[in-house]
Amino acid sequence: MLCIYIAYRRHMDVAFGQRTNEAMSSSIRIESVVKEKNRMGECPVWEEWENALIYVDINSQKVCRWSAVSCEVQCVSVDARVSSVALRQHGGYVITLGTRFAFLDWDSQKVTTILELEQDKPNNRFNDGKVDPKGRYFAGTMAEETAPGVRARRQGALYTLFPDLSVIKQLDQVDISNGLDWSLDHRTFFHIDSLAYAVHAFNYDVHTGKIVCPRLVYHLEEEERMPDGMCIDAEGKLWVACIDGGRVIRIDPETGKRIQTVRLPTSRITSCCFGGKDYAEMYVTSAYDGLDEATLAKEPQAGEIFKITGLGVKGIPQNFFAA
User: DSSP for 235-250?
Assistant: First the structure.
């Protein structure tokens, strides 16, 4: 089956001292590669040995895998909202669904619960998650809306699942625990609490997995809206997906400055990761839940997954959960 691509050119904002706007924007290509629309596509992870992108559709309660070879999508349905997925060292995946950590065996579609947290908070669920450089799974929680625009504040937390399947709580009183990643030297942890509209950094002990000393890296501008998922590139710069802002932005964590913006053809941009040959491609998820009929008519590609090429920077492979 051939992939049918639709290419978009979008202007990019580049800070002084970087390559010119004209040179960079002319090299950028944005293609829709997964046209099966996701209600809330999230947590893309490149699976190198399968030449595939694994991701979740939270609100459809599915873990999906898109093959870059066949362009086909396969999905496994689960029994709760599944918010993140990561690769396992021994095969299969580790996922967060509802308020549970669990293993997912792709071939049998079997989900095995590891443990359940926050049973005293029935409106909570897990959100984004990612594996650290030593094979620990970091994942955070959030309170669901009880009515449109109504959400209990500071009900979430950030947890770490260790390879021995023990868990510690790293942060408390979080609103919406979201994007996360680690610096290339493994000394800094980056984290997004979406309702803070900011990226924060923490000192990170690679030996223990503990995080301390939070500090502000970047506060989003009004037009960028709310930060969602995040990844790091091979130059140590952060890429943040801006939900309702229709873009991904590149941030220099050393200076706290935005140095690049890539706009996409739909507003609800949810997360991003690098993949493909040499990790030179960026994959960006989106959502259509939350858009009214008029907006959906203007954004017919809402919920699709996009591939960006020509960024001039590569990513790094994802870490494996060490169990």
Answer: TS-EEEEEETTTEEEE
Question: Distance between CA atoms of 214 and 85, rounded to whole angstroms?
Answer: 26
Q: Is 145 annotated as a binding residue?
A: yes
Dig out the tokens for 241 from the structure. 């997906």
In the prediction, which pLDDT does 20 show?
Answer: 33
Collect all residues with Cβ–Cβ distance below 8 Å to 11 and sequence separation of at least 6: 21, 25, 263
The edge-to-edge listing of strands for the beta sheet with 167-174 is 124-131, 137-143, 156-161, 167-174
The pTM (predicted TM-score) of the whole model is 0.92
**Mapped to the 3 state alphabet, what secondary structure does 115-137 carry?**
EECCCCCCCEEEEEEEECCCCCE
Low-confidence ranges of the chain (pLDDT < 70): 1-26
**CB 24, CB 262: distance < 8 Å:** no
Q: To the nearest 5 percent, what fractions of the chain are helix, strand and coil?
A: 10, 55, 40
Return phi, psi of residue 74, to 5°: -115, 145
Residues constituting the chain: 323
Which among 57, 128, 132, 228 is annotated as catalytic?
228
- Give the model's pLDDT for residue 149: 78
pLDDT value at residue 104: 98
- Give dist(CA 132, CA 135) in Å, integer: 5
Known binding residue 125? Answer is yes
pLDDT score recorded for residue 151: 87
Residue-range domains of the chain with CATH: 7-309 (2.120.10.30)
178 labelled as ligand-binding?
Answer: yes
Separation of alpha carbons 299 and 291, rounded Å: 9
Q: What is the pLDDT of residue 9?
A: 33
Is 263 annotated as belonging to a binding site? no
What type of residue is 71?
C
Q: Please say if 13 is a catalytic residue.
A: no
